[in-house]
């Protein structure tokens, strides 16, 4: 494969500074091209996306009987937000490509075992990130509906929302859920790096449950307990599954270290016994 061409010709994975810079430039160019192509698709998808995120505001305004609109405060605001939304969608659409390019840039500096681990991280990170984005999109109408329900239920009341603030809020909510689904992968990576042990993670399981519950409650506010549990369930399974995997990795690592220590001790004893025989 072309990806491992440098590794084949250079088994130790050593590259000059110039070669590193050329490799980085090539990866950045490919990522930028993928982002631009995704932004083109995002430009075409912006209008139906804006219509979809505007629907909760129309619904709550109709239910409560007050005027609610998304306002654009300047001449260039519409274009700026269209461009911002296009690149936001493009970054999501092209995420498998630029994540792969980051991985491909790192791979030449890793050994075969580490490359297998990185493969696992990549194939776990992309589906989890996509699942988190979907959950964020799924709970978004409930969040908007709940927050806007605090507007007084009066015909003289009005809620005019700045388009930039609203779109930024929606983007942050969706990205937050995507990152929340990625955290378990990060936990496993931190454990494999030897920074944090699985037992240490389990000691704070109460805070994990509390944090996931709070996030789920904010994402599905009101009396919709079913949505809250439906969101909290997968997150808790992911977090506790990641911690359980970390414990298993710790035990495997401890057994391997104990075996290596025993072999080292046996080698030292054999060397000592051989030395005693030679002295006789």
Q: State the separation between the terminal residues, measured CA to CA.
A: 59 Å
Largest sheet: 2 strands, parallel
Order of helices and strands: HHEHHHEHHHH
Sequence stretches where pLDDT stays below 50 over 5 or more residues: 1-13
Strand composition percent: under 5%
Oligomer: single chain
Give Rg in angstroms: 26 Å
Compute the number of structural domains.
Answer: 1
Taking all residues together, what is the mean pLDDT?
Answer: 78
> Helical amount among residues, as a percent range?
over 70%
The computed structural class is mainly alpha
SS elements, strand count: 2
Shape: flat
Number of helices: 9
Strand order within the widest beta sheet: 1-2
Family: Belongs to the TatC family.
Pfam families: TatC
GO biological process, one term: protein transport by the Tat complex
Region (Disordered): 259-280
Describe it:
The chain is mainly alpha-helical. The chain has one domain (16-268). Helix content is 80%, strand content 4%. It contains nine helices and two strands. Strands 1-2 form a two-stranded parallel ribbon. Helix 2 packs parallel to helix 5 (112-148). The longest helix has 55 residues, at 225-279.
Summarize, please.
Helices cover 80% and strands 4% of the residues.
Keywords for this entry:
2 strands; transmembrane; mainly alpha; translocation; 80% helix; 280 residues; proton motive force dependent protein transmembrane transporter activity; disordered N terminus; two-stranded parallel sheet; transport; TatC
């Amino acid at each position: 494969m072309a990806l491992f061409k440098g590794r084949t010709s250079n088994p130790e994975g050593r590259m000059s500074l110039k070669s590193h810079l050329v490799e980085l430039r090539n990866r950045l160019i490919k990522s930028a091209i993928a982002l631009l192509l995704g932004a083109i698709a995002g430009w075409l998808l912006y209008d139906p996306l804006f219509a979809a995120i505007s629907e909760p505001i129309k619904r709550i305004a109709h239910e409560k009987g007050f005027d609610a609109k998304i306002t654009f405060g300047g001449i260039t605001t519409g274009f700026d937000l269209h461009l911002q939304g296009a690149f936001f969608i493009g970054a999501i659409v092209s995420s498998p490509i630029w994540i792969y390019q980051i991985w491909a840039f790192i791979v030449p500096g890793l050994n075969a075992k580490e490359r297998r681990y990185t493969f696992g991280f990549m194939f776990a990170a992309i589906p989890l990130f996509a699942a988190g984005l979907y959950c964020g999109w799924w709970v978004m109408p409930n969040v908007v509906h709940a927050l806007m329900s605090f507007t007084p239920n009066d015909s003289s009341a009005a809620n005019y929302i700045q388009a930039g603030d609203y779109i930024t809020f929606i983007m942050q909510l969706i990205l937050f859920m995507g990152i929340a689904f990625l955290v378990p992968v990060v936990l496993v990576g931190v454990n494999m790096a030897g920074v944090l042990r699985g037992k240490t993670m389990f000691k704070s399981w109460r805070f994990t449950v509390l944090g996931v519950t709070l996030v789920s409650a904010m994402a599905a506010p009101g009396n919709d307990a079913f949505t809250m549990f439906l969101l909290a369930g997968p997150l808790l399974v992911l977090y506790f599954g990641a911690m359980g995997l970390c414990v298993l990795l710790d035990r495997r690592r401890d057994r391997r270290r104990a075996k290596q220590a025993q072999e080292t001790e046996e080698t030292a004893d054999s060397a000592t016994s051989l030395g005693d025989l030679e002295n006789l």
